[in-house]
Amino acid sequence: MNISLTDVLFILVIFQLLFLSFYLLTHQTGKKISNRLLGFFFLSICINLSDVFLLVTGFYSSYPNLAGFGSCLPLLFGPLLYFYTEHIVYKNFSLTIKSLVHFLPFVVFFSGTELYYFFQPFEVKERLLNDLLEHHFPVAVSFVSALIFIQFLFYAISSMRLVSFYKNTANQLFSDYRHTNVSWLYSTIIFFIVVMFIATLNGLLTSTSFIKYYLFAFNIVMLAVFFFVIQILMKALKRPDFLSFNKEQSSHGAFFLSKGILHEREKREKEKIIEIVLQYMKSNKPYLEPELTLDQLALQVAIKPRRLSQAINEILQQNFFDFINRFRIEEAKRLLTNPSYKKTTILEVLYKVGFNSKSSFNTLFKKYTGLSPTEFRKKQSQ
Fold first, then answer.
1. For residues 340 and 311, what is the distance between their CA atoms, to the nearest angstrom?
2. What was the pLDDT predicted at 362?
3. Nearest to 130 by CA among 61, 216, 67
4. Around Cβ 163, how many Cβ atoms within 10 Å?
5. 62 CB contacts (<8 Å, ≥6 apart)?
6. Pair 39, 25: CB distance under 8 Å
7. How confident is the model at residue 264 (pLDDT cuts 50, 70, 90)?
8. Quick check: 329 and 184 in contact, CB under 8 A?
9. What is the pLDDT of residue 257?
10. Is 174 helix (H, G, I), strand (E, B) or coil?
11. 310-322 burial by CB neighbour count: b if 16+ within 10 A, else e?
């Protein structure tokens, strides 16, 4: 029995996805609903690949009636990914009866194709399976694959817009980089857009002279998924709440930026708010608290959170994240140039000024000063 590279990749990726799905569906840490949604997302990919694997290994030649049970599952990829993103972004998210509408295309298409295929004569099933094995896809299959990609792209773009909305809102509410950093979710969405695009394009090219590259492109996609899942598993095992983003989150409509020209009276009021806040920041140094939020600072200065946020945005032209972290960086600069702290390490300094992460400290320090902390200290000492 000859085992090809494609077979090995199939087995590895299917096992990975099965393990990851089981981990997410049974894991109790973090937000259970988001874990389940992501678990079903990976499980649907796993079943879809298993269906293809059974086809290419010839299993369906003996049991043709079982073929194609996972062919419609890509219709679930988009809705599951979107609902997972929505649950990450909105803390008051819940699945409703209306949510089931998003899964209707899968139910209708699965029921129709399965019934049609099941009642076909054995010879027709055998011929269709042989065509698929030789990568001779009917035009209808290629057309449907393109439609499925368009559907997935619609949900993926909607998910990216949600992530962007959360990022912008979180910058107004939190000072801790861990609350605002959802780049992993954004990169995950981009990854699956690329994978779906290559897979769809690969299927469309089977009716052209480029069919000889089909297997090569397919192996590249499988290899990419293999390393992607490894990366997710390593992060999830290291940080159990990684995939569910178990942090305080913003609610839809809970915050918005005011736009337009400020009336003179409003402007004076907001300038007064800024004076109060700046004085409080200078004397009490609340920014030294690593997880300081807008609500916490507003409570300390006895100003409504929304009014405080508007004042910071419109008068200082900053969001809350930048406002707090600029104070932290200024405090870090003071410590790095203070002879009394000459023997204090940069790691100790970043913790002293309210940072939890060395990477975010270095990134923001260079953003605000143009130098790394080490370069800054060295230049000042000279």
1. 36
2. 92
3. 61
4. 19
5. none
6. yes
7. low
8. no
9. 31
10. strand
11. bbbbbbbebbbbb
Q: Please work out, in degrees rounded to the nearest 5, the angle formed at the alpha carbon of residue 128 by the alpha carbons of 16 and 8.
A: 25
pLDDT of residue 242: 63
- Retrieve residue 290's tokens: 């690593």
- Coil, helix or strand at residue 182: coil
Long-range contacts: 363-366, Cβ < 8 Å, 24+? 364/177, 364/325, 364/328, 364/329, 365/329, 365/332
Q: Specify the DSSP class assigned to residue 293.
A: B
Structure tokens at 312: 């910071």
Query: Do the beta carbons of residue 171 and residue 165 sit within 8 Å?
Result: no
Measure Cα distances from 87 to 31, 75, 237, 249, 255 in Å.
9, 20, 21, 10, 17
Place of tokens 């009490």: 284
pLDDT at 259 over 90: no
* Single-letter amino acid code for the residue at 96: T
Please tell me the pTM assigned to this model: 0.67
Structure letter (DSSP) for residue 354: T
Output the six-digit token pair for 250: 């913003």
pLDDT at 177: 66
DSSP 30: S
pLDDT band at 265 (very low <50, low <70, confident <90, very high): low
Question: How far from chain centre, in Å, is Cα 310?
Answer: 28
The one-letter amino acid code at 354 reads G
- Euclidean distance between CA atoms 236 and 243, whole angstroms: 7
Residues 185 and 88 sit within 8 Å (Cβ to Cβ): yes
> How long is the chain?
382
Q: How is residue 321 written in tokens?
A: 């994240």
